[in-house]
Amino acid sequence: MTGDTPLSRYSLDGRTALVTGAGRGIGRACALALARSGADVALMSRSRDELESLASEVKATGRRAHVLVADVCDKAAVDAAISGLPRLDVLVNNAGTNVPQEFLDVDEETFDRVTSINIRAAFFTAQAAARRMVAAGAGAIVNMSSQAGHVALVRRTVYCTTKFAIEGLTKAMAVDLRGTGVRVNAVAPTFVETPMTKPFLSDPDFRAYVDANLLTTRLAGVDDVADAVLFLSCDASGMVTGTSLLVDGGWTAH
């Protein structure tokens, strides 16, 4: 730390970050935040068009962009993409989904789809990234959790199940990776207006439910989450591991 300036602790110059679910919403914002802080960024999702558009924006910052078209549920494809990167210093394990249903109405297809993306894919993506980082002796993994990993939310039993799992995974990974130079943390946002959440937030009753639980005077934006991810990705958080950073507008405080 000697000789570092405060801002240099937030620099990612010379590093490479992988963002899953990068094509839109929170993932896109994270990729741009990392690039603006100096990282080359590997962009992973199923949509080439979205990734190519984002890659152009990353390149406009002066950083390199690696376009990785892959389904995070395809472990072999993800393993190959990660092993093919020139280096890997940061993973933003962001890909996820949600299908709101009443508990009594949850069907097996929905349960399997949501848990496959939110738990299984997140687990094995983190494992593949961690293997690269352990071999290099350093790295930062940021799992995308949710306030739903801390408190119950209406019509979201499956989603809450997956995000409580991510909170546990984050802590257990940090313990297993102690001494390797690899830190593992989670970011747990409240409801953020993205293409996935916009239909929910457009419902007046649901929006009233959200507003009643926030202590802030506004909804969270994607940049609020990206800023937290950036902090946990850089040297400024060098003593932070095995924990979850809530970006929840105070939702879980009451």
UniProtKB/TrEMBL annotation:
Keywords: NADP, Oxidoreductase. Residues 15-169 form the Ketoreductase domain. The keyword Transferase does not apply. It comes from Microbaculum marinum. This is SDR family oxidoreductase. Homotetramer. PANTHER family: D-ERYTHRULOSE REDUCTASE (PTHR44252), D-ERYTHRULOSE REDUCTASE-RELATED (PTHR44252:SF3). It holds the Pfam family adh_short_C2. Belongs to the short-chain dehydrogenases/reductases (SDR) family. The keyword Oxidoreductase applies. Its EC number is 1.-.-.-. GO terms for biological process: glucose metabolic process; xylulose metabolic process. InterPro entries: KR_dom, L-xylulose/Carbonyl_redctase, NAD(P)-bd_dom_sf, Sc_DH/Rdtase_CS, SDR_fam. GO terms for molecular function: carbonyl reductase (NADPH) activity; L-xylulose reductase (NADPH) activity. It comes from the Bacteria. NCBIfam families: PRK07231.1 (NF005559).
